[in-house]
Amino acid sequence: MTAQRTLILASASPARLGLLRQSGFAPKVIVSGVDEEALSAGTPAELARVLAEAKAAAVAGLPEAAGSLVIGCDSVLELDGQALGKPADAEEATARWKSMRGRAGVLRTGHCVIDTASGRRTSATASTTVRFGEPTDDEIAAYVASGEPLHVAGAFTLDGRSAPFIDGIDGDAGTVIGLSLPLFRRLLAELDVRITDLWHD
User: Fold this and answer.
1) Parallel, antiparallel or unpaired: strands 166-170 and 28-29
2) Residue 5 burial (CB count, 10 A)
3) pTM above 0.85?
4) By the 8 A CB rule, do 165 and 143 touch?
5) In the chain, which ranges are E strands?
6) pLDDT given at position 2
7) At 168, is the secondary structure helix, strand, or coil?
């Protein structure tokens, strides 16, 4: 019987950590420290993947990651062809919500998995359409005042206070929360790793 591999999440996101824990994993968390503003790409989907790759690579190169599997993720909301990350301040979050309500955007989450034992890596982007409701100006103001939208891509999340303002999604909910478990399984398989072998007892 082989020893269980260590899974490292290269992200400070409590939502991603929660998803993995709820699904039977016990990842270590090492925050990458990557400067997201310094990276760019041709499309929002490519940007999400490039950011995920940068985060995973930064952590995979650390001595404490030796022999581990590292997953890096990053999310952006694509609206009108633009990639929207975390809003800079309350004013931007308010304007963002007023422009999103009653419309649909696509949440793009890049994933990169690196097997530090073999040096192999793979990456891809998952996409889910999000249909926004029509919160009132007062509801938007109260939501922004909660501080939550300042910490999440697109200024919203499915598993928090903005959930009542989202009418529905088309695709994997995990993509919107920050990590697509079906895509994670497929990426592990490309590296010849069975996802069930990473389940924690």
Assistant:
1) unpaired
2) 15
3) yes
4) yes
5) 7-9, 28-29, 69-79, 82-84, 104-115, 120-132, 166-170
6) 55
7) strand
State the average pLDDT over residues 118-133: 98
Both tokens assigned to 144? 């922004």
170 is catalytic: no
Other residues' Cβ atoms within 10 Å of the Cβ of residue 19: 22
Of the residues 74, 138, 159, 201, only one is catalytic, namely: 74
Which residues, 6 or more positions from 139, have their beta carbon under 8 angstroms from its beta carbon? Answer: 165
Tokens 């694509």, residue?
78
As a whole number of Å, the CA-based R_g of the chain is 17
Separation of alpha carbons 106 and 109, rounded Å? 10
Q: Which residue has the tokens 């790793």?
A: 193
State in Å, rounded, how far the first CA of the chain is from the last one.
15
Q: What is the largest CA-CA distance in the chain?
A: 59
**pLDDT confidence bin for 95, thresholds 50/70/90:** very high
Residue 58 reports pLDDT greater than 70: yes
Task: Provide the pairing of β-strand 82-84 with 120-132.
Answer: unpaired
